[in-house]
Amino acid sequence: MPAWLELMIASAGPLLWAALVFTIPLAILSFIFGIATGLLTALVRMFAPGPFRAAARFYVWIFRGTPLLVQLFLIFYGLPSIGITLDAFIAALIGFTLNVGAYSSEIIRAVIAAVPKGQWEASYSIGMTFGQAMRRTVLPQATRIAVPPLSNTFIALVKDTSLAAVITVPEMFQATQRIVAVTYEPLILYVEVAIFYLLMSSVLSQVQAWLEEHFARSGGFAEARS
């Protein structure tokens, strides 16, 4: 067996472990919290009083206008200077959540706005409150529209988790760097971790395609859930 293949096989275990323990949980948790943050931000920007809208716009402006890497550095390395020290995983989770929240808020705001105004009026005409109209009528329709862009956001997030290596999170890319430091075989190992990311992205792309087909066939989140 070639030496390079033996090295790839030997390093596959640590990389898979890092992916299962750090990379995937970090991506999933950041996406869940980020979508919740994005939904809240979108609703504030669309329906809240002026000062709250301004605060939401400021948040989106900051996190869409600065690099994610800088945001991670500010949270992990900058906050200790004012007495706030965070675990590396928590710092990465906060950074990714706020970044995803800013970008997803624009997606969510757009898909909610895309729901015809008549749907709101029909909901109110049968006695629904704002919350009921949003939950039962608007969000189910908006979800179907939001699946493709939000799926792309999640796939991009999975790859972006590699940036957590710079703040010492022992995810898949940092695990690769540690092995490189011992074996001095950067080309082989970086190709291997690239293949890992490629496989994960390919699987997620297939899931995205299935979700799009499923929502198109079922007609929305409400029907799919039932």
UniProtKB/TrEMBL annotation:
Record key words, sorted: Amino-acid transport, Cell membrane, Membrane, Transmembrane, Transmembrane helix, Transport
InterPro entries cross-referenced by the UniProt entry: AA_ABC_transptr_permease_3TM, ArtM/GltK/GlnP/TcyL/YhdX-like, MetI-like, MetI-like_sf
Topology relative to the membrane: Multi-pass membrane protein
GO molecular function, one term: L-cystine transmembrane transporter activity
Primary localization: membrane
Compartments (UniProt record): Cell inner membrane; Cell membrane
GO CC terms in record: ATP-binding cassette (ABC) transporter complex
ABC transmembrane type-1 domain sequence ranges: 20-200
PANTHER family assigned: L-CYSTINE TRANSPORT SYSTEM PERMEASE PROTEIN TCYL (PTHR30614:SF0), MEMBRANE COMPONENT OF AMINO ACID ABC TRANSPORTER (PTHR30614)
Protein name, UniProt field: Cysteine ABC transporter permease
Organism: Terrihabitans soli
